[in-house]
């Protein structure tokens, strides 16, 4: 029996996803990407899932898009199959996604991380974009997202000269939010997800949307957008529940409305 490419497990309000192609260092094939997107959509649509955690295996989060898939597909077939759109569909998820990284996060694997919201790294995590060494360029968002995260010079060095970042460098440069002890990336990501899950779900969705808008919008438009979302959340029952709980020193119960 063939192993599933994606393992999924719900733990309370957290939807956990494990990329499960360890013998190929989690190289992202078309079926694997399709399953990943379907699982994320399923969790995103479930009102009881408040955060999603994605992790890989011990040696790799994901060593890139499957080079076999790339080699076998002509340019037009690759384009019309929507291969690179899988990363956009992951980035479109409204529920916060926390990625836990051990080992390699290369090429499309790093682009997958950048479509997530929070990246937690084990000390052995390695981040790189080897595409130009293969005669191609990053095609799932890295030239845009990496530049916004790391700035021009370091992004250029990674894309053009194949520079890899260690976990410490990635954390110093703001790609990663924290480095854990060895073997604790997943449990730390779950703990972060747990804290997110306790917050108001409507507020979480709106805050994520506002934060992501800062990548796309000029400052004044972004601030207006934030103000609109803020007014919308202020009209929610969750806001009432949160403020009443604070006043009565109890835990708020949020319903996402
Ligand atoms: N695709 C397919 N198989 C892979 C990949 C990959 N990206 N990476 C590793 N594997 C496979 C290897 O072929 C090998 O399989 P097998 O045992 O059957 O030969 C197995 O994983 C283990 O790999 P290695 O034996 O090579 O392990 P090492 O420890 O010696 O090396 C490395 C680890 C350094 C990670 C090495 O495997 C490597 O360099 N891998 C390729 C990394 C790479 O180039 N990634 C970028 C791919 S291109 C990309 O991601 C573009 C995204 C753009 C998407 C949008 C397009 C439209």
TrEMBL record:
Coiled coil: none annotated. PROSITE patterns: ENOYL_COA_HYDRATASE (PS00166). Keywords: Lyase. It comes from the Bacteria. Signal peptide: none annotated. It is an enzyme of class 4 (lyase). GO terms for biological process: fatty acid beta-oxidation. Gene3D superfamilies: 2-enoyl-CoA Hydratase, Chain A, domain 1, Lyase 2-enoyl-coa Hydratase, Chain A, domain 2. Its EC number is 4.2.1.17. One of its GO terms (molecular function) is enoyl-CoA hydratase activity. Pfam families: ECH_1 (PF00378). InterPro entries: ClpP/crotonase-like_dom_sf (IPR029045), Enoyl-CoA_hyd/isom_CS (IPR018376), Enoyl-CoA_hydra/iso (IPR001753), Enoyl-CoA_hydra_C (IPR014748). PANTHER family: ENOYL-COA HYDRATASE, MITOCHONDRIAL (PTHR11941:SF54), ENOYL-COA HYDRATASE-RELATED (PTHR11941). Belongs to the enoyl-CoA hydratase/isomerase family. This is Enoyl-CoA hydratase. It comes from Acetobacter okinawensis.
């Amino acid at each position: 029996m063939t192993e599933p490419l994606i393992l999924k497990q719900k733990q309370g309000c957290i939807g956990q996803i494990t990329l499960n192609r360890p013998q190929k260092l989690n190289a992202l094939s078309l079926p694997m990407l399709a399953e990943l997107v379907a699982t994320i959509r399923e969790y995103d649509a479930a009102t009881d899932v408040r955060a999603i955690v994605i992790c890989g295996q011990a040696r790799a989060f994901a060593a890139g898009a499957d080079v076999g898939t790339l080699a076998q597909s002509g340019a037009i077939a690759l384009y019309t199959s929507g291969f690179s759109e899988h990363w956009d569909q992951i980035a479109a998820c409204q529920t916060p996604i926390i990625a836990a990284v051990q080992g390699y996060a290369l090429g499309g694997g790093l682009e997958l991380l950048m479509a997530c919201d929070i990246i937690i790294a084990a000390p052995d995590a390695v981040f790189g974009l080897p595409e130009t060494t293969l005669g191609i360029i990053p095609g799932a968002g890295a030239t845009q997202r990496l530049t916004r995260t790391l700035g021009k010079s370091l992004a250029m060095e990674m894309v053009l000269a194949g520079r890899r970042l260690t976990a410490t460098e990635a954390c110093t440069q703001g790609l990663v939010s924290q480095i854990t002890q060895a073997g604790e990336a997943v449990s730390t990501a779950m703990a972060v997800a747990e804290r997110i899950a306790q917050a108001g779900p409507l507020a979480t969705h709106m805050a994520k949307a506002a934060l992501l808008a800062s990548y796309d919008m000029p400052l004044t438009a972004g601030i207006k957008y934030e103000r609109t979302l803020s007014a919308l959340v202020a009209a929610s029952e969750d806001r009432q529940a949160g403020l009443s709980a604070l006043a009565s020193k109890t835990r708020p119960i949020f319903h996402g409305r």
